[in-house]
Design brief:
With 374 residues, the chain is of the alpha+beta class. 56% of the residues lie in helices and 9% in strands. Helix 8 packs across helix 11 and helix 10 crosses helix 11.
Length: 374
């Protein structure tokens, strides 16, 4: 829609929309948010986004369309000189790593605490899913169908009655580690947000920091984390409780111990799934008679199996995880030997060393708003 303010197509309860919205707020970028039920989105934007539905999608003032939260942030980071990307190598690497973990590594608790607590959440979810559809009886049916589809998707992400005790145990530990870090620092790497903050914000806002059940858990058991969720949605730095209100990244490329402890807690689930998904996707690639360059890469290529603390888990294998991980791996590769060894020691300590050495036999890229195989 040319000559209009930038439009963000999304809704408040969309996990990935929160990532882009927070970036716009922190970067001071004017936008208007519109539901994907909007007629212009249906008639024009979907086709301009490569024919693939997806939130968030933006339409710029000149009518250009960008789909996918990472691509949207990339676009504006390139324009601004990478305002939210640390200049130092170790911090830049961990910023990219948290972007991947945030977007892909907390989906099980996000889905569990949204869909398995109807007494607390159902009325709230019905209200919010109605925003995805036009008004009226037909719209209500569309909204209910969309909600039911997402409820079923929780199983695809590995949330079953058998895995729930493990999911809750691990998330409780992750909450504690998140709370401890944000008790010491306003953001992941100091006094200003980085790309990793926006990735981590995706699940910790729309699902875990907003749905009634997990929100109450966060406000009760992880108040400092809740304050981070609040400040990620505010234009100012909002760091009044910190004596040193410097709005900069930590000096000397420092990686604080609280961040290392947080990575260790997140790796409990993220590492085994990453290794298993790579094996599954690489086997799928090997089985393809022909996988032409620039052919469309779907969000999943089947199911993968792994264990988390002795609990068997089955979840969809998502190539997109490795698109994000490759960005962190590129930062690691570009470091000098001393920095790479220092980062390697942290990865080993946290249980992420093997996962960060894992790659797909075919790279994934984004071209014309589509994930494609290279």
């Amino acid at each position: 829609m040319p000559n209009q303010p930038m439009t963000l197509y999304g809704v408040p309860n969309s996990l990935y929309t929160g990532r882009a919205r927070s970036y716009f707020i922190k970067a001071g970028l004017p936008y208007r948010e519109v539901s994907p039920a909007d007629g212009h989105y249906q008639s024009h934007v979907i086709a301009a986004a490569g024919g693939r539905l997806g939130l968030p999608t933006i339409e710029l003032e000149d009518g250009a369309v960008i789909r996918d939260g990472a691509s949207i942030i990339d676009h504006f980071e390139a324009q601004s000189g990478h305002t939210f990307s640390p200049a130092t190598p170790k911090q830049r690497f961990f910023s990219r790593l948290f972007d991947a973990i945030g977007a892909e590594g907390l989906l099980r608790p996000a889905m569990h605490y949204r869909w398995n607590f109807d007494e607390e959440n159902l009325a709230y979810l019905e209200f919010h899913f109605a925003m995805l559809a036009p008004p009226g009886e037909q719209g209500q049916q569309i909204a209910k169908a969309a909600a039911q589809a997402m409820r079923k998707a929780a199983v695809a992400f590995g949330v079953t009655p058998e895995t729930v005790p493990m999911v809750e145990e691990v998330y409780t530990e992750q909450l504690a580690a998140l709370d401890a870090h944000f008790a010491a620092y306003p953001y992941l790497l100091g006094g200003r947000p980085c790309i990793g903050d926006f990735g981590l914000y995706a699940p910790l806002f729309a699902h875990l920091g907003r749905d009634p059940k997990p929100l109450m858990m966060m406000m009760t058991d992880a108040l400092r984390l809740y304050r981070w969720v609040e400040r990620m949605g505010r234009e100012t730095s909002d760091i009044v409780e910190f004596p040193d209100r410097s709005e900069t990244y930590l000096a000397d490329d420092a990686i604080p111990e609280t961040l290392v402890a947080l990575l260790k807690a997140l790796a409990i689930d993220f590492a085994p799934e990453t290794l298993a998904a790579a094996d599954t996707i690489n086997a799928w690639i090997a089985d393809q008679d022909e996988l032409a360059p620039s052919s469309r890469c779907e969000r999943s290529v089947g199911m993968t199996s792994f264990e988390v603390r002795g609990t068997p888990v089955s979840a969809i294998a998502q190539p997109y995880r490795f698109y994000l991980l490759a960005r962190a791996q590129a930062e690691l590769k570009a470091m000098n030997n001393a920095d790479r060894e220092a980062v390697g020691a942290i990865l080993k300590k946290t249980g992420l060393e093997e996962a960060l050495a894992t790659t797909l036999t075919r790279e994934v890229a984004i071209r014309d708003n589509q994930e494609v195989w290279l």
